[in-house]
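## retry 2 of 3
previous attempt timed out at serialization; input unchanged, resubmitting
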Amino acid sequence: MTRPTVTVIVAAYDAAAVLGDCLRSLLALDYPADHLQIVVVDNASRDATADVARAGGPRVTVLHEPRRGAAAARNRGLAAATGEVVAFTDADCVVDSGWLTPLVAALDDPAVGIAGGRIHALRPCTRIAELGELIHDHASAMASRPPYAITMSWASPRALLERVGGFDPSLLRCQDVDLAYRIVETGARLAFVPDSIVYHRNRATVRAMLTEGYLHGRGSVALRRIYAGRLAHFPRRRGYARRITHHLRQLIHNGDTSAALFRLGFDLAKIAGELRGELR
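## retry succeeded, writing output
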């Protein structure tokens, strides 16, 4: 059976320290090289990101996007994509050699608009980074209501991405959630593919984890404003008090205290970001 052509897009900003590992893993994919285009979009980096990308060799196409933001960078890659399927991963990810093949296979079902796989912490790492897998739980994201996908591990038909207009460059956070919502609105469904694995350099310290939660919270406010009324058939988000109470109950009854504390801390930081965003 003939496999579809695929373009893998990596948006990179000040990623010189990590991009080389990402590219080596992409170049080692078990997908046929003559059906694979690898595109790195340097998003106005201040370091040697572009040099590292060019060092990937002739199989790596290096583009430049001066407008800051992962959405603008990914759209630049999408505009240059030649594959029937477009896949995304991040510059601080390392993909398993079998990452791409099952994602593409899931798209054989014409009802599937996004296929996404498991996201593990890149080890060795700190306990905080290990617990970061709770944040990047792709199975839960795709089963949530409304469902969404994470661009660390994402594949879609290029024609569908172009039809819905790609990423919204006005969003500096939650661009992948926004694009997933728009794809869901077309009637397409999301497919979790457990055999597809990427390894991500999760935030390694408590401070970095809290910062990530805060930024997630601020970004979600803009998203809720965009989709007010458009996703009304999905359940309403729990209020702040109920969210905190839920985490406190988990802390009391959950045998894994560190995981419960991590979830509580992350959501408290997220609530702080939401409150700050609502004041703007």
